[in-house]
Amino acid sequence: MSVVDRVYDELRQPEYTGDNRCLPCTVTNLLIAAVVAGGLSFVQPVVAVAFAVVAVAAIALRGYLVPGTPELTKRYFPPWLLSLFGKEPEPVVDAPAYEGDVDPEAYLLEHGIVRETDDGTDLELTDGFWPAWDREIQRVRGELETAVGELLELDEPRIDPGGQIQRVEESHACSVYDGDVRVAQWPSEAALTADLGAIEVLADYGVDVDEMDRGAAGQLLAGLRVFAESCPDCGGEMALGEDTVESCCNVADVFTYDCEDCGARVMEIQAA
After folding, report:
1. Residue 19 gets which letter from DSSP?
2. How far apart are CA 105 and CA 102, in angstroms?
């Protein structure tokens, strides 16, 4: 590898460039660079040109010129402006991020995966489903990248347990990449593990996730996660709650299903 290639690899941030680039953030940085370069041109034209070249190169390679750009777009870009860039307020992506439509509770009831509780006020997993699901979770935990690569048909599957969507207090999101391109996102690695573990068990109940529309499959698996009886990561107690989450350009309130012991987020849906 040449010196130029090594420098390029060191400077480039694939998580913020290419298909992962945030257009509002890029435009914001280019406008800031243009204003600064314009101001410098009245004083030192040569310096202005040099600054413009460096600024454009930084934005091209790293995605941002100004640190904290997402905070600027969240605070000062109204929803109508974000929508022009295809950035409508959709802060939570419960993987896989595809179009689809399914009512998870009705579907799970229909296939005998959940049932009403004795008092008729709630739903619970039918006998035997959780033990089988938990066994699959333990099995798949050591081969997550291979399993998700097969599920999403990826050439170069890679898991980053700290993706772009974050809780205000702490990052939990798990992103899945095909090479340098982010293709899907789960609320946490625990949520990804739960979904991969559920697939084989669902097949025993006549549900072939591979044959479903990917969006519908994602909704079904996300809906099933709230019935997990213990944490897929540590085996701790699970609890429903509320939180505020951030994406690159948005902030929203969400309902959550988190582990009380290790904090793993297993389910996250936007509040109405």
Report:
1. G
2. 9
d(CA 196, CA 34): 47
Largest CA distance in the chain: 79
pLDDT digits (tens, 9 = 90+) for 132-153: 999 999 999 889 999 999 988 8
C-beta of residue 184 within 8 angstroms of C-beta of residue 96: yes
Q: Quick check: pTM over 0.85?
A: no
Return the residue matching tokens 């549900």.
207
Scanning the structure block, which residue is given the tokens 């680039």?
21
Contact 39, 2 (CB under 8 A): no
Rounded to 10 degrees, the C-alpha dihedral 253/259/262/266 comes to -70
Q: Which two tokens stand for residue 141?
A: 């935990």
Burial 155-193 (b: 16+ CB within 10 A, else e): eebbbeeebbbbbeeeebbbbbbbeeebbbbbbbbbbbb
Q: How far is the C-alpha of 166 from the C-alpha of 244, rounded, in Å?
A: 9
pLDDT in tens, 72-108: 555 545 554 444 444 444 433 344 433 457 788 999 9
State the pairing for strand pair 238-246/166-167: antiparallel
What are the sequence ranges of the domains in the chain? 3-76, 104-270
Residue 91, both tokens: 């802060």
